[in-house]
Amino acid sequence: MKKLPFLLVLLLALPVLTFAQSKKNLAAVKEVEALERQRFAAQVSKDYAYLDKVFADDLIYTHSNGKQNNKTEYVQSIKDGKSVYDKIDVEALNVRVYAGEKTAVVNGTITIYQPNKPDGSPNVAHLKYVVVQVKDPKKGWQVVLWQSQKQPEAKS
Question: Domains, the chain, ranges and CATH?
Fold first, then answer.
């Protein structure tokens, strides 16, 4: 019978603990969503200091054509003009946080606008992508994996 009051207190406290946990999880989701948008903006504006901060040293960046870069190679490709972004529109963004708010899996849809093709036609890519971010205690959220896939052009 002594266990009954303890169990009752535990059952009454469970919804409060669950709410507190989901509120914390929601904060992490919102933080990662904002960081995704900031990272895309940094790729467009060529903010190398920001990109150096948000890309983990062991980054694996797989482009939609299958080419793979590490962090140094990918940032250098932006510096060299091989990866050029005039604008990146985020169309869909879904963040799931795991492992005590230390790992985030992001999937979304973006449209990348690049300089026009040599014939003057627009150079637009519609991509679906997956990102894994890990929260480093000293550096904050960092991208450790990027994988994207081109989507077919929308028919008018």
Answer: 3-150 (3.10.450.50)
Report the amino acid identity of residue 68.
Q
- Type of residue found at 145: L
Question: Which amino acid belongs to residue 156?
Answer: S
Report d(CA 88, CA 12) in Å as an integer.
47
Burial class (CB in 10 A: 0-12, 13-18, 19+), 42: buried
Q: pLDDT tens-digit profile of 20-59? A: 346 668 899 999 999 999 999 999 999 999 999 999 999 9
Q: Is the pLDDT of residue 61 over 60?
A: yes
Structure tokens at 5: 């009051």
